[in-house]
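1st attempt posting a full record on here, be nice pls
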Amino acid sequence: MLSATCHCGLVTVEIPQRPRTLTNCNCSICRRYGTLCCYYRFADINVHAKRNATASYAWGDKWLRFVRCANCGCIVNWQRLSEPEKGRAGVNARLFEPELLGTPRIRRLDGARTWRHLRDDE
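the predicted structure (as tokens):
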């Protein structure tokens, strides 16, 4: 397991192994949050936080929620609201020390328009 914390240390997240790729999405929320996400089965991610140490945000059709530290505001992960255990979740890789992640490939996702991964020259 690889472990990381939010800036203030109140929230810890664990992932099972180094990600091979990270996603840089330009959708309206990811662009504003500045996250780089790695994806795992929801059941394989551990988030540890004391009661009331996290807050969440969901918008639009409310199918995803973004979890953040209620104190420092760092985005920790996103997860499905309906049956999260059946799907994958995204973890904000920017919380991890760079040397823990190695050198994963960063893929650009056009979440603003097409929901397709972009080639390096787009």
